[in-house]
């Protein structure tokens, strides 16, 4: 694939960073349109997105560094180059949600309704970001003989070269684009406040859990051969299911 979008006299533009930025911008555009449709102040909602995004990016990068510390021990400054690839989505999810909730409260916005507003944008931004992962070669899949397997040949790619691999990044991106469309529809027909956000986490955690079986990049293992990622996703699935039932019961 193409980790570098542009290189000129030592100046490098990484495809991963460009697509992450594009995902953020399109996500915020969808968010602001949704805010207007729901009668919320787009400026307040954008402020929430800004602070939550900073917290999420920091948490996602720190999580990646901790999981791959051996790669940065000799040159810690490399850890700052997040635009080259290396974010753990669920590592940014918790700090992003916590800071988002605090900012929502400080802005006087309704909590569950605002979180519902964010869910489609999160799925959209993540879907575009996963294309960036594909270009960088991170989050790569296990070897496969299937005809749609991909072979990475660029020496700057983070994936193994010359091996046909499952394009797990594209699997994830297609799944998230579909989730984005589903959440837009659900937001119009939701039965109670909070249904869209917790449905997003429920469906995403289930899909990510299954996708882990096709991943080929290094990951720590838990019990019975499951990865730590799958442990986190299983916990998130149970929490989301509980919250959906609780909110429905108390609506």
What does this structure look like?
This protein has 251 residues and is mainly alpha-helical. The protein has a domain at 4-176. The chain contains 8 helices and 4 strands. The strands form 2 sheets. Strands 1-2 form a two-stranded antiparallel ribbon. Strands 3-4 form a two-stranded antiparallel ribbon. Strand 1 and strand 2 form a beta hairpin. Helix 1 (15-37) packs antiparallel against helix 2 (42-67). The model has no long low-confidence stretch (mean pLDDT 88).
Summarize this, please?
This protein is 63% helix and 5% strand. The chain has 251 residues and is mainly α. It is globular.
Major sheet description:
2 strands, antiparallel
The total of helices stands at: 8
Helix share bin: 55-70%
How large a portion of the residues is in β-strands, by DSSP E? Answer: 5-15%
Radius of gyration: 19 Å
Biggest sheet, strands in spatial order?
A: 1-2
Bulk shape: globular
Distance between the termini: 48 Å
What is the element string, with H for helices and E for strands?
Answer: EEHHHHHEEHHH
Number of strands: 4
Low-confidence stretches: none
Mean pLDDT, to the nearest integer, reads 88
- Return the structural class: mainly alpha
């Amino acid at each position: 694939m193409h980790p570098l979008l542009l290189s000129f006299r030592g100046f490098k533009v990484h495809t991963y960073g460009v697509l992450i930025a594009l995902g953020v911008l399109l996500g915020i555009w969808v968010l602001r349109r949704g805010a207007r449709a729901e009668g919320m102040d787009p400026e307040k909602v954008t402020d929430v997105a800004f602070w939550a995004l900073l917290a999420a990016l920091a948490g996602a990068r720190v999580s990646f560094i901790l999981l791959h510390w051996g790669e940065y021990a000799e040159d810690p400054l490399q850890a700052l180059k997040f635009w080259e690839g290396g974010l753990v989505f669920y590592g940014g999810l918790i700090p992003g949600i916590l800071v988002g909730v605090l900012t929502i409260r400080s802005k006087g916005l309704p909590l569950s309704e605002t979180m519902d507003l964010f869910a489609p944008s999160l799925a959209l931004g993540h879907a575009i970001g996963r294309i960036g992962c594909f270009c960088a070669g991170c989050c790569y899949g296990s070897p496969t003989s299937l005809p749609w397997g991909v072979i990475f040949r660029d020496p700057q790619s983070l994936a193994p070269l010359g091996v046909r691999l499952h394009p797990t990044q594209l699997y994830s991106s297609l799944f998230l684009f579909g989730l984005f469309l589903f959440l837009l529809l659900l937001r119009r027909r939701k039965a109670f406040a909070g249904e869209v956000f917790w449905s997003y986490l429920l469906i995403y955690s289930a899909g990510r859990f299954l996708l882990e079986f096709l991943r080929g990049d290094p990951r720590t293992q838990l019990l019975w051969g499951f990865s730590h990622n799958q442990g986190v996703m299983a916990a998130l699935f149970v929490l989301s299911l509980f919250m959906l039932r609780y909110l429905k019961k108390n609506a």
